Protein 1
Amino acid sequence: MRLRLARGLFALSAFLVCASALAQQSLTVDQLLSFIRSSIKLKQPDRQVAAYIAKLKLSEQLDARTVEELQGEGAGPKTVAALNELASASESLPKPQPKAAKPALPPIPPPPPEEQQEVISEMREYAMNYSKKLPNFICTQVTRQYYDRTGTESWSTAATVMENLTYFDQQEHYKVMMVNNTYVNLEHDSVGGATSAGDFGSLLHVTLARKADAVIEFDHWATLRGKRCYVFSYRISSGNSDYNIRYEKDLRIIVGYHGLIYVDKETRQVLRVTFEAEEIPLSFPIQEARETLDYDYVDISGQPFLLPLKAVVRMRHDRYLTKNEIEFRLYRKFSADAEIKFDAVTPDPLPEDKEQPSK
């Protein structure tokens, strides 16, 4: 108790010395704000603070709004009354000068045209051979399905689906194992809700294939998961597209699409692809469809491979929205006797990876 009292007395003494020094000079509004906020933080007596404010002189105009803000931050009633008097006395003084904005850092210049074309060429080559270089493997795919009937992104949970995903001979095979932590035996298309497929290279391949004739341009620099990235925009017309949207079982259309491709500056490998459908006929039930697919390095039998990490798929039918958050877990090398055992509890969601501006 004595130690606390001694500290309190020391803080009060220091405050009084500071206040006495301030009373002997004309203050700017910023200096006054700093003084008041310090008194609030130190929990100085309201009467004492008000007495010293009465001795202060300002070099700038203090307005009523600033006093209200200080009251909201915790200034006492006597302090507020003293500040209002100070505001009235300073009405004829010049208004505070606006703070100079911090100079914005100049944007990083885009890479030279030759470098851009070199990266685009490497992207195409990478996408063409990506699937061929992948090993046969199995993994767990966790899909969290959400819906919103209002069109305001007020999401409700529809289902959580865990699947055994096998990648064999460059083909994806799905087997639903659990829905809402209950074991089931279903096919991929039998779960209901929005579904997607092709995340293990086929979407990347058809986007960057020569026949797609994508218009690719450098868009900006970014940092993703700590890696500096080239970010390229692209656009593919419906006439050259293999991107299809299916509604229920009978309706399917091929649409054009556009998006961004994030390429690791050091390795020239693709870390993220975004897709957004365009040229959707007005008569088709789904009016919007878009996806973000992230890749990251995964160890399989002691060797690193760049494989899908997670994806977010969104669709809209009138005001009805759906969102699937998909994660790929527990990668293992495929063998005839390999299997994945599911826990009874769904794993926690992976953290969101937001793009950061490059410095």
Protein 2
Amino acid sequence: MRRRLIIVGLAVIAAAAGLAWWYSSHNGSSDELTLYGNVDLRQAALAFDNSQRIAEVLVEEGDHVEKGQVLAKLDTGRLAPQVAEAEATVAAQRAVVERLHNGSRPEEIAQARADLASAKADAVNAKKQYERKKTLVAKSYASQQDADTALAAMEVADAKVEVAQKALDLAIAGPRVEEVAEAEAQLRGDEAQLALLKQQLADAVLKAPSNGIIRSRLMEAGEMATPQSPVYSLALTDPKWVRAYVSETDLAKVHPGMAAFVQVDGLPDKKFEGWVGFISPVAEFTPKTVQTEELRTSLVYEVRVFVKDPDDQLRLGMPATVLLPLGADAPKPHTGEEPAISSDAPAPSEAAAAASPTGTQ
């Protein structure tokens, strides 16, 4: 009987120790708050802006790519000649505008003066011929028809003088303001067309918008690309965060910018530094995929803890444990010297709209 009591007592002690371990492991110490969640990151569907046949697909699934790296190219066999033609049109029209701005050359003005002087000399000669014919008619040495012909020649010579004078005036005055404005407007139109074609030529090269990993290669060389058909699915490596949930009773202990540590099962000895970047203002029921020490019917608040992962060890959907130090010895939260929300991580106001792995909240 005594032996049985000893065995029962040891069993009770073991059960109590196990319960104490479970409670401590799930609730943490009083100076530390433990949350559970999954690693999350953003994804981008990359497509061409043009509708054309794909010429090259340069990267494979799983490749690490950097911002600005060329991922794929379209066939530009038809677009390149259009750009060359537009460049020639712009060059010709620019020469027209320059010529109008410069006005008449000194040689052109000198030529107009010479034409005027020649016309005046012809007019003087024609007038003398007419006066001579008129004197001969009065003495009956010439017919009236000869006098009329000389008169007409004199009038033609006078008209040519007037034409030459107007030509000289135009050469000196230069082109009209309206002509210059028309030529400049035509040049702007040609330049806009050239810019459009050059942009289309640039859009024939698909570049990575940021650092990331190629998750899916969706199209191959020879296929017809459209703006609605993604060529790649890119998983962005920065920022990364853990989507966790905090109960209402612990909500007051958490604030944006608060320092945090993240652990994952695959790397039990490593702690990733992070910070609280977003706390949901709306309560919700705990998702089925998240385990907390509270009942699943309890209302919780979503918390996004952004993580520093320079070695790219965290993967999408990886279960993670978040440790939030609460005591006096807790790491210093992010301040103005090192913002809690960096340029690569969304601000708290933007984080509410951050996409989930499937592109939805």
